[in-house]
Amino acid sequence: MKTNHAPTKPLYDAATLLPIFCKLLPCSYIQQLVDKSEKQFYQRIFTPLVLLWCLIYQRLNADHTQDEVLVHVKSGAADHLSPDAKRPISQRIQSESTAAYSKGQQRFPLSVLTEAVSHTAQASQQTVARWHDHPVALLDGTIFRTRPTKALRKHYGVLHNQHGEHYWIQIRGVGAFCLHSGAVLAFAETPVTTSEQKCATEIMGQLEANTVLLGDRNFGIFATAQAARHHQQHPLFRLTGARARKVAGRFLRAGDDVPVNWSPSRQDQVNAEMSTAPIPGRVVCYRVERKGFRPLKIFLFTTLLDPTVYTVEVLGELYGLRGHVELNLRYVKEQLELGELKGKSPDSVRKELYSGLLTYNLIRASMAEAAAVKEKISPLTLSFTRCWRRLRLELIKLRATDTPEHLAEVLRRLLLRLRQCKLPQRKVQRLEPRAVRTRPRTYPVLVGDRKKARKKYRQKLKAQIAKS
Fold first, then answer.
1. Between vectors from CA 306 to CA 305 and to CA 311, what angle results, nearest 5°?
2. pLDDT tens-digit series, residues 7-30
3. What is the three-class DSSP state of 184?
4. Residue 207 · residue 231 · CB < 8 Å
5. Structural contact between residues 300 and 315, judged by C-beta atoms closer than 8 angstroms
6. How far apart are CA 268 and CA 260, in angstroms?
7. Can you tell me the distance from the alpha carbon of 98 to that of 101, in angstroms, rounded to the nearest whole number?
């Protein structure tokens, strides 16, 4: 007698990567982003979910080459990501060439990565606290570099100085990082000739309304405060002493709190599409005292108008946490090795950058999840580097043959391990000069174009051969 069996429900989906990743980036959500994108994506061996995992794995792993990703996929570790296929992906890939993965990356819509970065940031914010019911975003910029291919030179431009053209192509990146989780809330990359203030104005529209924006003196100008008001956000920007005295209209002493209406001067640049009316706010002077250092006065402008709730001390202490953004950018560039991008076209560079930011957000989400286990602690007390090492090791060890019970146990143990990776509580604050020691070089530094250097070296060899 023939019996009809119901189709077996696949035991494994994106959860085999890690349950946290499945919760933040389910397969259905990724497919929605692909369908919503303007770029048509053909379903081949490397499906959107497989490609997304490969991009994350490529950045998580110490070896960032495409060949290492191919070895990982052919090992069977990603077979569960295509449960509807007749044969697993590890058996369908016959060639040892990385061409299929490379072409899949080129077809993959960039909008999926940018939307995924924003989605993971919003999800990680749900498990962390807020400051006086305000989300807090830290603004800062940095420089990425890449090699001078023809397409990158045309898109990002080439810098010049008195010695001629720079070899490296420089890309400016400005990000808004969540204060309490460390996740990237919004990011913009532009040619280095675009100012950080203009990039910050662009990403403000991607942030939640009523967000408090923390920025250093570079952002303490009328144009950025004007953009913050336009997007219904509250700036807390540091001002230079001269600008603070000009806006306040008088000399400021420690503890002063002056209500102001900041109007643009003739020298101030303004956004023509936004209101140029005076910005009501406060200029406060906060005195910073540290043992072994001279006292320092910092001047802050904010549109948080209630002086009883947002006192000078409260605002000064909040601005003191702005230094976390420097650490976040260092983790992105050093730990995830995004300081030098390997792409050869603007599109590939952007995908490499945003896949790195997505990986960073997933690590931050794991840290936030670990901090919420049992007694809740702040994710900022955990070491990003130590959590990144343990997370990477567990992800690489997972296989499609693992049972759901095993995966749940792996997650439980991993979160407990991450919770123990706390930053050291140093009794004496470290103070190091911002300098590095040069290492001995076997060969001299290459200056200028490599093709010209190769031609010159060839002529030198020919001359030596002629003499001999």
1. 105
2. 333 333 333 445 566 566 666 777
3. strand
4. yes
5. yes
6. 17
7. 5
CA–chain centroid gap for 153, Å, is 24
Q: Which DSSP letter does residue 347 get?
A: H
Q: Which one has a higher pLDDT value, 214 or 436?
A: 214
Mean of pLDDT values over 72-78: 80
Using CA atoms of 144, 148, 151, 155 in order, give the dihedral in degrees to the nearest 10.
50
Give 217-271 pLDDT, tens digit per residue: 999 999 999 999 999 999 999 999 999 999 999 999 999 999 999 999 888 889 8
In whole angstroms, give the CA distance from residue 187 to residue 267: 28
Q: Which helix (H) or strand (E) is 175 found in, with range? A: strand 169-178
pLDDT range class, residue 277, cuts 50, 70, 90: very high
By the 8 A CB rule, do 158 and 165 touch? Answer: yes
Each residue of 255-265: pLDDT tens digit? 999 999 999 98
- Which of 160-169, 210-219, 430-439 has maximum average pLDDT? 210-219
| Amino acid letter, 317 | E
| 8 A C-beta contact, residue 374 and residue 71 | no
- Separation between Cα atoms, residue 10 and residue 82, nearest integer Å: 10
**Which residues are paired to 422 by β-bridges?**
382
- Specify whether the CB–CB gap between 230 and 277 falls below 8 A: no
The dihedrals phi and psi of 262, each to the nearest 5 degrees, come to -80, 115
Look up residue 148 and give its two tokens.
Answer: 């001078």
Q: What are phi and psi of 396, to 5 degrees?
A: -70, -30
CA–CA separation, 308 and 352 (whole Å): 46
Q: Which of 172, 109, 110, 101 is nearest to 142 (CA)?
A: 172
Per-position b or e across 73-94, b if 16+ CB within 10 A of its CB? bbeebbbbbbeeeeebbbebbe
Considering 76-80, 286-290, 304-308, 398-402, the range whose residues carry the highest mean pLDDT is 304-308
Residue with tokens 């009501």: 280
> What tokens does 268 get?
């101030």
The DSSP secondary structure of 76-100, one letter per residue, reads IITGGG-TTSSS-HHHH---S-SHH
* 444 token code pair: 């001299």
Report whether pLDDT(278) > 50: yes
